[in-house]
Amino acid sequence: VSFFFFFLVFPFFLGFVCACRFVRGSGLGPLPAQEPSIPIEPPAAPEQSEVAELMDLVRDGAFSAPGYARTTLVRTQKKIGEWQVDLGDVDVVVGEYRPPGYRGNAIDLNGTRSGSIYQAVPVQPGLRYTVKFLAAGKWAGNDNRPRVVTVRLGKQKMTFSIAKPADWSPSAVDWKWYTADLLAQGTQEALRFNSETSRTAAGPMIAAV
Length: 209
Description:
The chain is built from one helix and 13 strands, in the order αβββββββββββββ. By secondary structure, it is mainly β. Strands 1, 2, 5, 6, 8, 11 and 13 form a seven-stranded mixed beta sheet that branches.
């Protein structure tokens, strides 16, 4: 009977011991060390464009204010439509020297001397604005110096020098497009064009701002 009992019980005992050893070896042993997690930085937000077009902000960029039937001298503290003359004097050029296909007027930034015009435009601080305009030089006599114009937006500025073409004439003025990228610093800035050419009544001309 004892042998028969041992024969029945021993397989169950042996299975229990083996099961205990399997569980103890795989389930209760030390866990492997976890690698430290590396924080993932979120992708940078797309930057806001730094360049904004000034075209829609300028009022009367064609200098087409009524009341000018011929070329007219405008002195300091006077206005040309939305533009204020704040230094020297300028000419509103009507008809002559007009760019091909252009229906507005032009401004000679030298009336009897070098002058300056401006208008206030609303801007956003920290944005860069592109000022696009036509410019050409006007020459008379033997003064063949380059005509120089400076564009300002607040305290920011760019200066352009216009050389006299070899075939220049009042009917072949050689108008060209110029651009100035200027950084706004306030919420309203003065957009200003001024002549850097002194001692002449024929200076740089601008149109189609």
